[in-house]
Amino acid sequence: MMLLVLSCFALAYGSVEALVPGGPIDRPDLLNGTNIFVQKALDAINQYNVKSADVPWTLVKVTSATSQVVSGTSYKFILEVTQGSKVESCAVGVWSRSLLSGDEEITVYSDPVCSQVNDTIGQRGVNVGGESPADVNDPEVQKALAFAGKNYNAISDYAFILKVVSVSKVTKQ
């Protein structure tokens, strides 16, 4: 019975988490790079690097795009850009305020923060320092599950015994 309640709570928490009013949301519709906000972010990267760049940076892909409603809409992008053989990943914030007009309607609110991308890592699709998929049968994962279950049971003073029934996703960092 307790397992059913815990499963229902986890399902409810996971589904509500994405619907937090005012919270940032993923925007896969902005990943194509043709949006005016992405272009504004790319312009900001070129303006920021104007001293060191005679050749403009060009967009390779939009790695991440989120938006949040805050007196308009705040967009946060991570863009992969290239200039000749150099490839960089840049984080840029763009703010859209539809009630304003002219240059104030769409502004960049955070200077680009760029770091060089290692091409061999980028081509393999590995997110260095980030999450990556893991196998549930991996001995390390099994030890982590056993550790989590043992500690949860100890914290609850063994009033309820937690037993892993199914695993939907496993990642490692």
From TrEMBL:
<dbReference type="GO" id="GO:0005615">
    <property type="term" value="C:extracellular space"/>
</dbReference>
<keyword id="KW-0789">Thiol protease inhibitor</keyword>
<protein>
    <recommendedName>
        <fullName>Cystatin domain-containing protein</fullName>
    </recommendedName>
</protein>
<feature type="domain" description="Cystatin">
    <location>
        <begin position="19"/>
        <end position="109"/>
    </location>
</feature>
<dbReference type="GO" id="GO:0004869">
    <property type="term" value="F:cysteine-type endopeptidase inhibitor activity"/>
</dbReference>
<dbReference type="InterPro" id="IPR046350">
    <property type="entry name" value="Cystatin_sf"/>
</dbReference>
<dbReference type="GO" id="GO:0005737">
    <property type="term" value="C:cytoplasm"/>
</dbReference>
<comment type="similarity">
    <text>Belongs to the cystatin family.</text>
</comment>
<dbReference type="InterPro" id="IPR000010">
    <property type="entry name" value="Cystatin_dom"/>
</dbReference>
<feature type="signal peptide">
    <location>
        <begin position="1"/>
        <end position="18"/>
    </location>
</feature>
<keyword id="KW-0646">Protease inhibitor</keyword>
<keyword id="KW-0732">Signal</keyword>
<dbReference type="Pfam" id="PF00031">
    <property type="entry name" value="Cystatin"/>
</dbReference>
<dbReference type="GO" id="GO:0031982">
    <property type="term" value="C:vesicle"/>
</dbReference>
